[in-house]
Amino acid sequence: MNYFLMLIILVIGAGAYYEYTTQQETILTDIQQINDLTDKVASLQSENKKLTDNQTQVVKSLSDAQAKITDLTTQLQTAQQAAPKPAETPAPTNPAPEASTPAVPRTNDLGTIVAKDGRTFQNCQLLAVEVDGITFNHAKGITKVLFPALPSDLQKRFGYDPLKAAALTEAEIKYQDEKRKASVAPGR
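Now predict its structure.
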């Protein structure tokens, strides 16, 4: 019977030892998880500090940019007030058209334009007549079409002559264009 009691004590002791080692392993695992979480918290705090510093820099840069915008706006307003107002020149009552300058129509409404290359422009409003073509606003934006691409009725309407146009040099075209722009009254 002594052996039997010793065997029971030995089994109880082995069970207690097994329980003790299992708890030790659990404690070590918990300690490792706590250390990992502590490292993650430190990393997140570091990243948070960097983000806070970056936010501070962005706010400062934004403030500086707003101050520059305010300064530039003030300078622009001062310059506009100090700039001399252009004198309005009366439009000539019956200007004589030059041979190489296209004639300007009396109305800006051009309706629908179908260019020779097949492009169609709806609801056209004339913006500018230039030496080499016309610029107009239409349903999808603003476009410049050269005279050779325009239908013949619009070529005639704007005084385009292919023979005269071929005779013009690039320098003459530039000169005529500058002259035309200078003759337009300000504010038109």
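Residues 109-183 form a domain with the SH3 type barrels. fold (CATH 2.30.30).
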